[in-house]
Amino acid sequence: MAVSTSSPEKGISVVTVDFPPVNALPVAGWFALADAVRAAGRDPRTRCVVLAAEGRGFNAGVDIKEIRAGGASTLVGANRGCFEAFAAVYECEVPVVAEVHGFCLGGGVGLVGNADAIVASDDAVFGLPELDRGALGAATHLARLVPQHLMRALYYTSRTVTAGELLAHGSVWRVTARAELRAGALGLAREIAAKDGELLRLAKAAINGIDPVDVRRAYRFEQGFTFEASALGVADRVRDTFGTEGG
């Protein structure tokens, strides 16, 4: 289980998440991911970061088993870890391309919603099953991928959307076959990395500065309701049915 960084080409850093079996990240994993993305962005040799994952899917959100076992302190840790990881992607000093395969759920949507571009395989699906898991959050980031009313319907129903559907909405740059995903992500990263590195960093800061929504503040506001659901016992009641028959 690890977060690793590699540099397959000049100017490109690939940050890879690998937490079998489904990339449901523990608290420490979220902080490790945040540190890796920030470090890659600070490296003056890097002009584009690719965020990728090994295994069956890109990301399945937080580790529900860890939260069940750890209680309130672990929930707070997961909240803070997700906040830091999402912010690290958004605030990375250079553009971030998310390379998505399989499932991208919960915290995965938080990551890709804050990325600068998404390249996805044709088997990729995106969604927030938070209401089925006794949680709330990341509507801020789903709203960056789909129109407002679709975001609400997806959130309330816990349904997913495909990479092809997001391509039609303009939030996915390109959809590829699974075998061609890395090549597709590196192709976009290579095109970005060909630009002047100093100017790219200025461009990233400028584009973030004109965003109509403060993603840090909006997500932190959502997290308050996640903790409120936990304090009221609602989260535990729903979470206890997760993974069970009929749950």
UniProtKB/TrEMBL annotation:
Top-level taxon of the source organism: Bacteria
Keyword Lyase set for record: yes
Keyword Nucleotide-binding: no
Keyword annotations of the record: Lipid metabolism, Lyase
Alphabetical list of InterPro entries matching this protein: ClpP/crotonase-like_dom_sf (IPR029045), Enoyl-CoA_hydra/iso (IPR001753)
NCBIfam families listed in its UniProt record: PRK07938.1 (NF005925)
Annotated family: Belongs to the enoyl-CoA hydratase/isomerase family.
Protein name: Enoyl-CoA hydratase family protein
Organism this protein belongs to: Streptomyces hintoniae
